[in-house]
Write a structure and sequence with these properties.
Elements: E1 3-9, H1 14-32, E2 43-49, E3 55-56, E4 59-60
Parallel strand pairs: 1-2
Antiparallel strand pairs: 3-4
Length: 65
């Protein structure tokens, strides 16, 4: 069972996450799925992180210095 993990900032709607899960599942099946691979066998996990807990290049992404 493949698990696709998505780490992103908080703020996406349920509808956006549902649409992304659909597309990721389809892309996995299309590119990597083998015989017997089903949509139900592809798991997508969303890990939403507050910008204050995410740093790029040593700078927190919440816009504060």
């Amino acid at each position: 069972m493949p698990i696709i993990r998505v780490e992103m900032f908080l703020g996406r709607t349920r509808e956006q996450k549902a649409a992304l899960a659909e597309r990721l599942t389809d892309a996995f099946i299309e590119t990597c799925g083998g015989p017997g691979q089903t949509r139900e066998g592809v798991w997508v996990v969303f890990d939403e992180v507050a910008k204050e807990n995410w740093s790029v290049g040593g700078i927190l992404q919440d816009g504060h210095s």
